[in-house]
Write a structure and sequence with these properties.
Chain A: This is ATP-binding cassette domain-containing protein. The complex is a heterotrimer. By secondary structure, chain B is α/β, with parallel strands linked by helices. Chain B is built from 11 helices and 10 strands. Chain B folds into 2 domains: 232 residues, 3-Layer(aba) Sandwich (Rossmann fold); 38 residues, no CATH class. Chain C folds into 2 domains: 163 residues, no CATH class; 94 residues, no CATH class. At the A-C interface, helix 2 and helix 3 of A face helix 9 and helix 11 of C.
Amino acid sequence: MSVVFENVHYTYPSGVEALVGVSVEFASGEVVALMGENGSGKTTLLKHMNGLLKPTRGRVVVEGLETSRASVAQLSQKVGLVFQNAEDMFFESTVYDEVAFALKNFGFSEAKTRRRVEWALRFFDLEQYVSHSPFLLSGGEKKRLAMAIILAWSPSIICLDEPTIGQDSLQKERMMHMIKMLNLQGKTIILASHDVEFVAELNPRVVLLSKGRIIADGMCEEILTDLPKLEKASLIPPQVVLVLKRLEDLGVDHRVLDVEQAAKNIAKVLTV
Amino acid sequence: MKIIEVRDLSFTYAGGAKPALSHVSLDVEEGEFVLVVGPSGGGKSTLCRCLNGLIPHFYDGEYSGKVVVDGLEVDRTPTYVLSQHVGMVFQNPQNQLFSLSVESDVAFPLENLGLPREEIRERVDEALSIMNIEHLRDRSPFELSGGQQQRVAIASILAMRPRIIVMDEPTSCLDPLSAVNLFNSIDEIRRKLGLTIILVEHRVDLAAARASKLVVVSDGQIVYAGKPRDFFERHNPHAYGVAFPRVAKLSLMMQRMHNDWDGVSLSPEEFVDEVRKHVGRF
Amino acid sequence: MSLFEGLRFRPGNSFIHKLDPRIKLVTSLMILLTAVVYLDVIVISTLLLIEAGLIFVAKVHGLWSRTLRGSIPLASLVFLITFISQYSREPVLPTAVGYSLAYSFRLVVFLSSFSLFFLTTTPDEIALTLQKLRMPYEYTFAFVSAIRFTPVMAEELRAVMDAQRARGLELDKGPFTKRVRNMIPILVPLLVNVLRRSYELAEAMEVKCFGASKKRTSLRVLSVKHRDLLFLAAATALFAVALSLKMTGLEPLRLSPLLGKYFPV
């Protein structure tokens, strides 16, 4: 198992109980979506993976390393965490330096740094900006740079906190493509999201969180069609599921996520 | 009655390489609910700012064309006058609230205008009541949830009694349930107060069904302005950076299978109604 | 910094909270001035007791005691300096101790004299007070904004630190020069954030007619009630007594020959 959460409790210094008895495992190479409303514990859970937060009770083990015994720097080499407002962390004068920063911190050689920076910028279509100031990039480019920065040192586990917030459909499609490509390269991807339609299309394993507790864990189609659980997690079900549920009396099965399949099912009952 | 008239509007930000808006024209009737969509960086926010006077009064640049809002020529009217006709709500709730209590924040614009205390009291109470946030009167904005903060921001704008409200991605920072609640509130105040709403949003699936007009802004130009349903029927939204609501896709698929399927649905409710019309007919 | 805990507002419903902030401001000033004029330990102790009494009525003693604790380092420094200078002048141990105690004690009263005002007055009321004192609105607004956005900026700081630590930045390691350089990845994004936020705030201010009218009105008012006047009268009377005693040379310390030997006047 790549990541193990064993009965993890976390209470913020302000007294807010953000995680209550969370036990979950992520296997190497999995794609998992953590879903729930704002404040359900998704971001808190992600921050436990690179040691930014240490459990107040229980333990987290990442690739054999117990997080309470390791530093954030150590854990970050294995776990790359892309924050929601990642574009707000730029400070260097060139895009190259921005990406190289983390590599220097992790002790990569000059030559290796150069190779990795060039690779990361190419992967995210940013090579032409290598000597530009990161502050002059457009919104979408900044988001891609934030991802390039994390991927440069090739962590085996990638955590994304709400990667589709405020994005238009083209940007979301790009993000979907990137996630799939990274997964093909063997990376474990854990994303926190409340974008049900995006997750429905990605079709990962889904873990539902509500008020710091895991209330469901399973395959995408199973979880995103479970209306009572989605309601408990304060999530709006995918439109297709809402439609099919309301047509239940006609004998339509609502446990479908695929639009084409749903259309066929509806057509079937209409010709009866 | 036309409440907004945009004629051949062009604007390039000072120091900008290319125009943010290029020869844009648009008409909005009183009481309409206009949904503005399009790819990021395409000009939606710029258009919003041209409607309430931030462009050209707050932003420098090359401005040409004419914008008339509620009978006022925007480039010739000071912003404090325009704000009493066109209110604006921004994306980040945190950066629109200045005071240490909700009541102070709602009173803020009225105090700035130098209105007499009694009138401020009356308008503040009214605004808090319309937005259903009277119980938050003495709370500090920092402690509120994103959805509550946006309600306070809207209340503060309503206090100025504008006839038009422009909202630039107001639910960006909110989760879907809070977003839906906010859209419901916005629709409610539109109906109650007879407001004209201009809403910029990416979350088409949550907002499109209520809109009476869809405007697609891409690359500084208006590439579509008309009925929302027609847009999804005739164009590929994805090509314009616009999200394709699943029910709309579903409708189109049903249309392909049955010729007399009427129109494109933009909400689950609409689609379900349409299905029930066809029960036992095929 | 626990010293600053004494400046944070604590909501409450006590008599002190309900007093007009201007009255509290004047009272705090009178306490400060009395402490300036006197070095007499009896007077200083009385001041501290009066303050403590008012603080207890307001039920904000928790925070106030933190201010007192926070002022211990500074007070100890004053004690040490006074002790050394006094002892070198007159090597009589009890006198040196007496002098040092007097000076450091007075410092504590200085530092906590305005606690009463800040602990029981909302920032909004402070802003209103400043306005009444004819401070231009721009400055009052800046003051309130600073208070309003402090917790927001604190959160931003945490977020930036988290983001940079996730890129391998280690803030608590290395020689001093490295640690100073490590502040750049924290300070630059924070500064950029502040600038961007200021721009967005300016837009919102423009849209909310900031500066539209020269004669700005306000929803809330400060009004002086009977209890405010009574309180003020009592405080002024005490202040007058204290001043007149000093001016006629009748400092309480002189009444006690024993204490007068060791403590300064």
